[in-house]
Design brief:
By secondary structure, the protein is of the alpha/beta class. It contains 10 helices and 12 strands. It folds into 2 domains: 110 residues, 3-Layer(aba) Sandwich (Cobalt-precorrin-4 Transmethylase, domain 1), CATH 3.40.1010.10; 136 residues, Methyltransferase, Cobalt-precorrin-4 Transmethylase, Domain 2, CATH 3.30.950. Helix 2 links the parallel strand 2 and strand 3. It starts with a strand and ends in a 6-residue tail after the last helix.
Length: 252
């Protein structure tokens, strides 16, 4: 059996009781942190579970998962993932690969950024397509986040931007970086979709030592959100209850 268990949003205290029980019953435990930053302590989690935990990099998950898949054919193994297990497409691919090899898979869910953004007061069902902003590289500057924003706004839907994680480089995109990239794309497109006057919501470390700020893109650009992980939200037309809720986080 292969257990894929969500660690939740912040640290080792977020794992569910069901997830912890599975950890204690399994002989092999693996974890990955390249899809998101986790503020927990591996040693504490090992003490809680009574087992050692092996950290896998992107290659270990996407290209060469044979070690834990082979073990899961005859024994129970666990893969720990920050947030909720199936929020990233990488992990559903792993589920399919396991099932093709006749390995039963059990998913144990946990808290996710997709529900945690409700703390802003914005209504979850009014969010449109979620998109990611990635660090530009030489000859690579994707404009798809801008396209998603345009599409969502046409349907009067909020946009959640997930910000790039470079785990192997210990580099994590901030709300400020995300706004700057959108402004660069706007300068090229000149469509007036995202400007310094656009109202935005910046969130950092939801579920832990969190910070939420609401203001114009220019105002948020000047704010220090501290440590990652962070996300950026661009609201569409706000319901009056959403507007009242967001005013709690207005930058003064």
């Amino acid at each position: 059996m292969l257990y894929i268990i969500g660690l939740g949003l912040y640290d080792e205290k977020d794992i569910t009781l069901r997830g912890m029980q599975a950890l204690k019953n399994c002989k092999k435990i693996y974890a990955e942190f390249y899809t998101n930053l986790w503020h927990g302590n591996i040693e504490n989690l090992e003490k809680m579970s009574g087992n050692k935990i092996k950290i896998l990099n992107r290659t270990g998950i996407e290209e060469a998962p044979e070690e834990f898949l082979n073990f899961a054919k005859t024994e129970d193994a666990v893969l720990l993932i920050p947030g909720d297990p199936l929020a990233a497409t990488t992990h559903i691919d792993l589920v399919l690969r396991a099932e093709k090899q006749g390995i039963p898979v059990k998913i144990i869910h946990s808290s996710s950024i997709f529900s945690a953004v409700g703390e802003t007061g914005m209504q979850i069902y009014k969010f449109g397509k979620t998109t990611s902003i990635v660090f530009p590289e030489k000859n690579y500057f994707p404009e798809s986040p801008y396209d998603a924003l345009c599409s969502n706004l046409k349907m009067n839907l909020h946009t959640l931007f997930l910000l790039d994680v470079k785990y192997d480089e210990s580099r994590y995109m901030t709300v400020n970086n995300g706004i700057e990239i959108l402004l660069q794309i706007e300068k090229k497109r000149a469509a007036g979709i995202f400007t310094e006057k656009t109202l935005c919501v910046g969130c950092a470390r939801l579920g832990g030592e969190e910070e939420i700020k609401y203001g114009t893109a220019k105002e948020l650009m000047r704010h220090d959100f501290g440590a990652p992980p962070q996300v950026l939200i661009v609201p569409a037309k706000l319901h009056f209850v959403e507007e009242e809720a967001l005013l709690r986080y207005k930058i003064q």
